Please model this.
Amino acid sequence: MRKQINHDVLIIGSGAAGLRLALELADSARVAILAKRSLTEGSSLYAQGGVSAVLDPRDTIESHVADTINAGAGLCHEQVVRFVVEHGPGAIRWLIDHGVPFTRKDGSEKSTEYHLTREGGHSHRRVIHAADATGHAIENSLASSVRAHKNITLYEQHIAIDLITGQKLGMNDNQCLGTYVLDLEHGKVDAFGARCIVLATGGASKVYLYTSNPDTASGDGIAMAWRAGCRITNMEFNQFHPTCFYHPHARSFLITEAVRGEGGCLLLPDGERFMERFDSRGELAPRDIVARAIDHEMKRLGIDCVYLDISHKPAVFIKDHFPTAYKRCGELGVDITREPIPVVPAAHYTCGGVATDRHGRTDLNNLYAIGETAHTGLHGANRMASNSLLECLVFAQIAGEHIQNNLSQMPQPADLPAWDESRVTDSDEEVVVSHNWDELRRFMWDYVGIVRSNKRLERARRRVELLQHEINEYYSNFRVTNDLIELRNLVQVAALIIRSAQLRKESRGLHFTLDYPTPDDKKAPEDTILVPDEKNLSQDIDWTGTN
Ligand SMILES: Cc1cc2nc3c(=O)[nH]c(=O)nc-3n(C[C@H](O)[C@H](O)[C@H](O)COP(=O)(O)OP(=O)(O)OC[C@H]3O[C@@H](n4cnc5c(N)ncnc54)[C@H](O)[C@@H]3O)c2cc1C
Model:
């Protein structure tokens, strides 16, 4: 029998949130990090624009708070917003002290000031960045500090399958005890025990056919937390990034919002500028408005894409500010210094997630959630650009401090039952996984995408129930693989999104439905909170109840 693996703190996920937390804790605890791919692979690595924080003397905390709340369309938790914004400058100083090479003013290495850019929804320049590859700079700096720390053990190519809770083991408490983990290189499942477990698994945008996210974004943490008995909040609010590079035969990648911030214009194929018809802020309107406007124009004209043009700026400025976009578009035949970039919207960010408190704690004892997988109340119904890395960094630090202060009272890892494979065999029909994977992401795009309706959501519900049934049956009969684990999580997350969208009988922020096209002003805006049934361990969704 394989031996249980124990640590003080087990962090599932190695994006900005997970790595920042590990460095907060490692001087005082034995920390392990699980990453289902290589250490740096995840959304954090691909973040381009930057991190928002009040760093310019002409900017104010009040202004950043007000902009965030304005974007959040009535659902931001004001105290959380203020708390995160106030911690912003400190979070950036910490990154600078840990060697993150942010772009300096005037491009000079000697300058002591940093260049700040402006993005949609922000009323000041407050986005600090490392050219247009900020995530790369942050992730690699944190990863090298993590690799060098003797108290941190790394498990790359290890995917967590499910959380082990006291309740699942028949104990009378709601404690998280560990997780089962598939070692992807050796194909074996181990039980990992810890005094404290942290979900830092990122978002769920992979549930949609078109996404800016890497393959890691399959909502594993949200699905695992739901199955373990945690509440999940506001899953109807998916952000669609308005401008992903469009190419009929290449994978889409994101064109940073900073291109619009620096004067990029959105154009129809005939060269008409159209954003002002939708919002007086034009190209600088919040993302949901821009994404819906593009979606509307594409459907109205039956076109495959619109265009984003920055070519009126000097070529040297473009190459300097957007080296990644310049290089990647160039590889696909578009010289952005001379011609407009073909763009379409794509699923980009999961605003909802595992319900957490001000310390990152979930509903289960000793289980925390941070980063995109968590719902903290910062983003409300719509995330403002560059606030998500900020949330990762601030909540990693705050959760780290809370864990440090409480670790001595958290029990030592319990003895966990070994993973039982006695009743499963190797799969005989891999096609079930690949077919269901494609079907799920296609109907989520068509029926639960940028524009929804009661009918579309009902169609999606019928399909997701069937897929969940098939996938659960398959999961009980065959050995787990990476694809099966991710598909099981994606279908769970899809069900949570559809249910949340059905419960919101209004349009607000990122959730737009043709049947209720305006916000419901008759009552105060409320979060959509899905509560798992304590008695139902399979955690099927109650499609008929009120939550
Ligand atoms: C293209 C792009 C550009 C962006 N630009 C910006 C920007 O400019 N500014 C900004 O603020 N935000 C930006 N965002 C959003 C931001 O990058 C993410 O919200 C943030 O990086 C999420 O960090 P995270 O640590 O929560 O998760 P991630 O960075 O996604 O990391 C998740 C980690 O969890 C691991 N994992 C997941 N499931 C499992 C499992 N079951 N077992 C083991 N490990 C698991 C993954 O391997 C990975 O290590 C962008 C996102 C994308 C995709």
Notes: The first strand starts at residue 5 and ends at 12. The radius of gyration is 22 Å.
